[in-house]
Each structure stands twice: as structure tokens, then as C-alpha cells.
Design brief:
Length: 274
């Protein structure tokens, strides 16, 4: 009887902890300090009418590195019935993509911050249900200053024993087929290249004057057509190619592996489709 009572007591305590754990939430608050930067975005955990500030660590503050923050989701990643916070952060410049962090509640007033190298760069995060728990699918590309690669990866991360573990990682070997193309790797050597093609289908060849963009290690092109004159293409791509399809009278363009850029006659420019 004592053993049964002890087990019941443990279950009751565990259930209470679960309920208590689900009563907290995360939020971002803008604060204007008396000294330092003009404003900072603090990450807070709110629990039992108490507000806990969560920093990177005791020596490194968020605003020195990961300035902007947003709570992307609150989801149970390890299947213990208690939600973790999925936090998206960015620097104050445009040099880099977002970094993601996981905030895990250990007990009231005790929150641990987790991350993984796959959650840095230019990640896109999706969720997948695996055996009644949520794993993270991380789509990432090789981008950034001076990067001429267009590597594309898909990594699945699982939260196990309070660590983010790689379940699988795949590298994309597929490119959307193009009639003709130019890559940043190619232009890194040649600096310039022209793509000659009848973009507006009027029987007269049009010109895409492409050059190497040193700042980002990317391709930039100026487009001149016989039917529409100069057309704005404001994107930098690691691979740029002309597709067989067309929109509003001009050929569609591929950026990197599979992002399609289409012409808008109303704005006389190419627009990237997300």
C-alpha cells in the first residue's frame, strides 16, 4: 500500500508540474535603457505573475549580437508535455540571416537556452510530428558576404536529453532546368558575362549584362529588351538562368536552385515568388 501511495504521489506531483509548466509563456518586450543602445528587445518568460529575463549568458547580452527577436512558436519538442519556445533572432544589419534558439523550461525560474549550428545562416524552419513529438525541419542555404556557393540542405533536428540532435541531413542535387545560365562561381573568375536571348519573344535578341557582386559573392544583371526597354532586376543570385515559361510578355528567371522570378508589367520589374 505504501508503494502504491508513493507511486500515486509521484504521479500527482508530475501532473502538477506538467500543468504548472504549461501555464507560462514567452514574449518580447522593447526596453529603452538609461545607458547603452537606444532600445533593446528583451526575451521574457512569464510564469505565476513573475517575469524572468532570459539572456544569452551572464557575460553576453542579446543586444551585442542578436539584436532583434521574435517568438516564432511555443511547441513541445521533447514530448514531456511542456512547451519550448522557438525564438528567431537577427542582427541589426543585413549581413546575415536569422539565428534560432530554443528556450526550455526546467522548473519555475530556471530556463535553459539551446541552439545548433544548423539553426544559423539563412534557415527556414518547419515542424513535423514524429511519434507524438515535434521535430524541426531546417531548410538552409549557403549565403552571406563573399559566398559563391548555392548549397541547399534539409536537416531534421530532434530534442533529446536537452540537446538538439541531427536525425538526418540531405544535400540538394537538383536545379530547376534553365535554357541558359550564369553562376557566381563563374563570374568570380570572369567578372562579367552576357546572356543573349529573346526574352520578349518578338524575334529580336535581348541582353542580360551580368556582373559579379563582390559584396555578396552573387550575380547581378542589367536587362535591356527591344519591346520593353530597360527592366529592373534588383536581386543578387548565386545562380541565374532563363526559363522557357514567361509572364506578362517576358521570360521567367530562375534564381539559385528553384526560386522563380517573374516579370510584372505594372511595375516594369522582376519579382521573386516566395
Amino acid at each position: 500500500m505504501r508503494l502504491i501511495a508513493a507511486i500515486l504521489s509521484i504521479l500527482i506531483i508530475s501532473g502538477s508540474a506538467m500543468a504548472e509548466g504549461n501555464s507560462f509563456t514567452f514574449e518580447i518586450q522593447e526596453v529603452k535603457p538609461e545607458e547603452g543602445p537606444p532600445f533593446i528587445y528583451e526575451l521574457h518568460a512569464i510564469e505565476n505573475n513573475k517575469r524572468y529575463i532570459i539572456e544569452l549568458n551572464d557575460k553576453k547580452q542579446w543586444y551585442l549580437d542578436q539584436y532583434y527577436k521574435a517568438v516564432e512558436d511555443e511547441v513541445d519538442l521533447d514530448g514531456d508535455g511542456i512547451n519550448e519556445g522557438l525564438i528567431r533572432t537577427n542582427t541589426s544589419g543585413n549581413c546575415c540571416g536569422p539565428d534560432y534558439y530554443i528556450v526550455k523550461r526546467i522548473e519555475e525560474g530556471f530556463y535553459s537556452l539551446l541552439t545548433h549550428e544548423e539553426l544559423s545562416g539563412f534557415p527556414e524552419i518547419k515542424q513535423v510530428n514524429r511519434n507524438n513529438k515535434i521535430n524541426l525541419l531546417v531548410y538552409n542555404v549557403s549565403e552571406g558576404a563573399g559566398n559563391i556557393s548555392y548549397e541547399h540542405t534539409l536537416t531534421e533536428l530532434e530534442l533529446i536529453n536537452d540537446k538538439l540532435v541531427v536525425v538526418s541531413k540531405f544535400y540538394n542535387n537538383a536545379n530547376l532546368a534553365a535554357i541558359m545560365e550564369v553562376t557566381a562561381k563563374e563570374l568570380h573568375e570572369t567578372k562579367t558575362k552576357q546572356l543573349i536571348y529573346d526574352l520578349d519573344k518578338d524575334g529580336i535578341d535581348d541582353v542580360m549584362d551580368c556582373k559579379y557582386w563582390d559584396r555578396w559573392g552573387a550575380v547581378q544583371c542589367d536587362i535591356t529588351t527591344s519591346a520593353k526597354g530597360e527592366v529592373t532586376f534588383g536581386l543578387g543570385c548565386d545562380r541565374l538562368g532563363i526559363l522557357e515559361t514567361s509572364t506578362d510578355g517576358l521570360s521567367d528567371i530562375i534564381c539559385n536552385r528553384r526560386s522563380i522570378v517573374k516579370y510584372s508589367a505594372d511595375e516594369n520589374r522582376y519579382i521573386l515568388l516566395e
